[in-house]
Structures are given as C-alpha cells and as structure tokens.
Amino acid sequence: MRIALIAHDNKKQEMVHFSMAYEGILEKHELFATGTTGKKVMAATNLNVTRFQSGPLGGDQQIGSLIAQNAMDLVLFFRDPLTPQPHEPDISALIRLCDVYQIPVATNVAAGELFIRALERGDLDWRKIIKEREDRHE
C-alpha cells in the first residue's frame, strides 16, 4: 500500500517516534512524505521514503495530487491543532480529497496506531481489491 507521512513542525518528533515504533510494518509498504518529515523519518529509521516539497511549499498539494489519481491508500497526517498554519487552505484541501476519494486519514498518533494495526491485519486490503477490479474494467 502507498502511505503518506505528514507532520506539522510541533508533531515531527511524534511522527519519528511513530515510524520507529512501527518500522516493521511500514517497511512493507511504499512511503511518501513531505520534505522535512521524510528527511527526519529516514534519518531515524531504515525506511525508504519518497520525499516531496515541504508542506508550505507545495508538498501537501503533491500528495493531494496522488490522492486524486487514486495512487495513495493511507494518509498519516499528525496535525498541530494549537498552532496556526499559514498553508491552512492546502491542509483543508488535502483532508477534503481524502474524504472525496475515501482515503483513511489519521490526524494524530492515536488514530495512526489504529490504522497501522488495521493495515497489519489486512483491514485496508479492500482498497487494493477495488483498484484491481477497476483496472480490469478500464
């Protein structure tokens, strides 16, 4: 599965710790991240992460583009609800795209843990099955 890792500045350390804790699960999937988040995750783990621009410089929109192309399966976006973000419209658009295309999105560690365990159990395999069926009918 394709997983996006995004974290606001005050949540980057949480994403790093999360990635370290669940490295064994994450390593089995294709990972994408906004710039600094991806850099920090790769520095702390052995995970291979495709990095995009920093969120405020368009990274959120690059990930949003993959969502719109049905090329993303899960978004782990650890948001900082207490700090205003200058690119809030981009964040809202990304979450809206997740809703439009039915992409699970976790906005904090607690939800991330639920999704990562569901991923491990195969609970998100329905996305793969639907995509394969759609590809056959094109």
TrEMBL record:
The record places the active site at: D60
Show the InterPro entries listed in the entry. Methylgl_synth, Methylglyoxal_synth_AS, MGS-like_dom, MGS-like_dom_sf
Q: Show where the MGS-like domain sits.
A: 1-138
Q: Name one GO biological process term.
A: methylglyoxal biosynthetic process
Any idea which UniProt keywords this protein has? Lyase
Q: Which reaction does it catalyse?
A: dihydroxyacetone phosphate = methylglyoxal + phosphate
Which enzyme type, at the first EC level? lyase
GO MF entry, a single one: methylglyoxal synthase activity
What Enzyme Commission number(s) appear in the record? Answer: 4.2.3.3
Q: Quick one: which residues bind substrate?
A: H8, K12, T34, G35, T36, T37, S54, G55, H87
SMART domains documented for this protein? MGS (SM00851)
Question: Which Gene3D superfamilies does the UniProt entry name for this protein?
Answer: Methylglyoxal synthase-like domain (3.40.50.1380)
**Family statement drawn from the similarity comment of this UniProt entry:** Belongs to the methylglyoxal synthase family.
Q: According to its UniProt entry, what is the function of this protein?
A: Catalyzes the formation of methylglyoxal from dihydroxyacetone phosphate.
Extract the PANTHER family matched here.
METHYLGLYOXAL SYNTHASE
- Protein name as catalogued: Methylglyoxal synthase
Q: What is the lineage of its organism?
A: Bacteria, Bacillati, Bacillota, Bacilli, Bacillales
